[in-house]
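Before relying on records like the one below, remember that each one covers exactly one chain. Contacts with other chains, cofactors or solvent are not represented anywhere in the record.
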Amino acid sequence: LSKDYAGNTVDNPIKETCKAVEEKVRKREEKNEKREKDEEELRQFQKWFAQLGMTLEEAYIEFMGELEEYYEEEKAQA
């Protein structure tokens, strides 16, 4: 092997450690970005439901009721 070879952790542990840390930081940033996006979407839904005079919980209960009715109709037709 040449003296400049830095292809594995034995020859260059610092470089490999930096790559691992960079990957971990990148994944954490992606996770945080997704969380922020989800929270923004939730706030938007809360605004819409507030305009309709409903809470998220009420909207969820209403949706689940309609979904249950749909499945019962599908089951009856089958």
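The mean pLDDT is 84.
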